[in-house]
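Attaching the record inline, Q. Sequence:
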Amino acid sequence: MTTRNPRRADFPLLAANPGLYYLDSAATSQKPRVVLDAMRDYYERDNLAYREWDTISRDRAKFDAWLEAL
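Structure, as predicted:
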């Protein structure tokens, strides 16, 4: 008798390949869809390096000063 784990549906690779058995080696691990969605969301919306944010803040301050001088 084969029992399927209902949690497989949470992992896209396992859900797409029902006959696949995955052994985690700790070097690479499958991530549940909710984690993949959160990672995608981060990279699409919030992935801004501190250095870039500092540059944006400095440039905005210069622009604000320029506008006030007009």
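The mean pLDDT is 81. The chain is about 55% helix and 0% strand.

More tomorrow.
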